[in-house]
């Protein structure tokens, strides 16, 4: 148990700051600086957590805290992080100040409301990645929907209310399905006043194979919607099109990772046999997500919808690496979650800057912007190249590891997934050609390049993408032990299933 509750402090600090902001409602311009200060203190707290984390035992849950919460049902306030949890917490708290710096003052409504919602969202993001109690995880999984709903519905585009409602309905539907599994776990677990602790449930379920499969499905559907995977992905393009660029950055860059994080942290350790049983179908769906979403992205003329569909394709790579049964691919998936968070954040923010200048998301409305806004064009290209795994940028190492591990475990899936790499080059480079090259468009000749504030917001993302691409070692040291511990869960379950099938045939 951790002597100082650093994770609880990280959850409470932005939440309390948001409440103060909501009560005070400061004058125009003050709220954004207040939010930046609060988020930078949160970054400092994350650095403290990093110094307390023992990288040599990254697969072990550390910085643990536990207190009885609802003893009647065995739920507790239990927090702790392993290497993956640490990486996702750092990604979340790192992107919040970037989003607040990038936000144009007074855009779409009062700053205090926007900043307060972002701080509430930051609190729930930290908590959900640190939750070690399944019931607590479920509550946080649902709670984070509401700040996003209001961020989209209040600060989004002209069709924002419909997009916000669609996002909420999809997410709540998945959450309600997961609730059935959460309730059922109580009956199959060891019971007691800590009945929902993940460590107590893992390996100790008394469920039959059929019951375990149903439990797995109830969790996986919710995570597949959140991830998002084809065919339950259709809420994302609408939401990204209507949300402001900062909200899209946090939604796609961090919140959607809760889906793949849940697959690793809950589905695999709690339901290893069912995970093995479902893996062939999930691998097919992952490959379909890679190819279908990539082709749909190629057909888009709205650059926010295009970026959303590229993310669906990237999530296909992440899910493929999780369920293919290779520690190498699993490591790649975990790094992919971080790398995609950086590149998609950069992409959404750059496109937000572009939209502010041209007042449109329509790709054909822009032409020759490289001559007018060379810094903006260059940053779009860097973010795009990172997303398509150019060596030296953040996307290369994870995509290489996912494909390498998949080739060893499932060659056919790897061959089809590799086609997604070719499609990715097209859906990044063709929009760049259409928007930034060629003669100047007379309608946008007066546009200005990025100002100092916008460059300041982009600088940490570019540095992080370069650092992860050139020096991936520190991140690999944190995530590889988690993958080495998690990937064998599917492999061992496959071995058990094979042994049972052989024994059944013999009888």
Topology:
Layout: H1 6-24, H2 30-52, E1 62-70, E2 75-81, H3 83-102, H4 111-130, H5 134-143, H6 145-155, H7 160-188, H8 198-201, H9 209-226, H10 235-242, H11 245-255, H12 257-270, H13 272-299, H14 303-323, H15 327-358, H16 369-372, H17 374-387, H18 396-409, H19 411-436, H20 452-470, H21 473-506
Antiparallel strand pairs: 1-2
How would you characterize this protein structure?
It is a single chain. Residues 495-507 have low confidence and may be disordered. The chain has helices at residues 6-24, 30-52, 83-102, 111-130, 134-143, 145-155, 160-188, 198-201, 209-226, 235-242, 245-255, 257-270, 272-299, 303-323, 327-358, 369-372, 374-387, 396-409, 411-436, 452-470, 473-506; strands at 62-70, 75-81. The chain contains 21 helices and two strands. The chain has a two-stranded antiparallel ribbon with strand order 1-2. The protein has 507 residues and is mainly α.
Unreliable spans are 495-507
SSE run: HHEEHHHHHHHHHHHHHHHHHHH
What would you report as the Rg, rounded to the nearest angstrom? Answer: 22 Å
Largest sheet: 2 strands, antiparallel
Shape estimate:
globular
Multimeric organization? single chain
- Number of DSSP-assigned strands: 2
Order of strands across the main sheet:
1-2
* Tally of helical segments: 21
Determine the N-to-C terminus distance: 49 Å
State the secondary-structure class: mainly alpha
Work out the helicity level. Answer: over 70%
Mean of pLDDT = 90
Strand content: under 5%
């Amino acid at each position: 148990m951790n002597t100082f509750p650093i994770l609880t402090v990280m959850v409470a600090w932005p939440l309390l700051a948001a409440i103060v902001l909501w009560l005070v409602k400061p004058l125009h311009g003050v709220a954004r600086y207040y939010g930046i200060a609060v988020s930078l203190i949160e970054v400092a707290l994350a650095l403290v957590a990093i110094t307390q984390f023992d990288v040599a035992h990254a697969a072990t849950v550390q910085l643990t805290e536990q207190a009885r919460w609802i003893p009647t049902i065995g739920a507790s306030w239990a927090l702790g992080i392993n290497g993956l949890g640490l990486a996702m917490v750092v990604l979340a708290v790192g992107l919040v100040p970037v989003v607040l710096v990038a936000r144009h003052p007074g855009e779409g409504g009062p700053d205090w409301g926007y900043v307060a919602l972002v701080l509430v969202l930051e609190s729930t993001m930290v908590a959900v990645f640190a939750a070690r109690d399944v019931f607590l995880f479920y509550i946080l999984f649902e709670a984070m929907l509401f700040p996003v709903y209001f961020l989209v519905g209040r600060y989004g585009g002209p069709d924002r209310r419909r997009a916000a409602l669609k996002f909420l309905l999809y997410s709540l539907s998945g959450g309600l399905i997961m609730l059935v599994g959460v309730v059922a776990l109580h009956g199959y677990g060891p019971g007691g006043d800590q009945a929902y602790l993940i460590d107590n449930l893992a390996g100790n379920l008394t469920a039959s194979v059929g019951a375990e499969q149903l439990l797995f499905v109830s969790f996986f559907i919710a995570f597949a919607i959140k991830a998002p995977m084809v065919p339950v992905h259709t809420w994302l393009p609408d939401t990204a099109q209507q949300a402001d660029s900062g909200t899209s950055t946090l939604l796609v860059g961090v919140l959607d990772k809760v889906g793949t994080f849940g697959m690793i942290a809950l589905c695999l350790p709690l339901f290893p046999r069912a995970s093995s049983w479902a893996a062939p179908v999930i691998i097919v769906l992952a490959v379909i997500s890679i190819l279908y979403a990539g082709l749909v992205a190629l057909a888009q003329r709205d650059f926010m919808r295009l970026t959303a569909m590229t993310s669906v394709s990237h999530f296909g790579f992440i899910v493929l690496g999780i369920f293919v049964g290779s520690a190498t691919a699993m490591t790649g998936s975990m790094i992919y979650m971080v790398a995609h968070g950086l590149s998609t954040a950069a992409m959404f923010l750059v496109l937000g800057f572009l939209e502010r200048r041209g007042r449109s998301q329509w790709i054909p409305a822009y032409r020759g912007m490289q001559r007018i806004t060379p810094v903006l064009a260059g940053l779009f290209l860097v973010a795009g190249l990172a997303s398509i795994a150019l060596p030296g940028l953040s996307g290369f190492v994870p995509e290489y590891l996912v494909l390498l591990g998949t080739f060893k475990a499932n060659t056919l899936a790897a061959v089809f997934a590799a086609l997604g790499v070719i499609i990715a080059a097209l859906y990044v480079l063709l929009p760049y050609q259409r928007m930034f090259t060629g003669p100047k468009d007379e309608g946008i000749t007066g546009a200005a390049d990025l100002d100092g504030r916008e460059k300041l917001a982009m600088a940490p993302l570019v540095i992080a993408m370069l650092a992860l691409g050139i020096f991936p070692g520190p991140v690999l040291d944190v995530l590889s032990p988690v993958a080495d511990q998690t990937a064998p869960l599917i492999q061992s379950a496959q071995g058990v299933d094979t042994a049972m099938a052989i024994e059944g045939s013999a009888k």
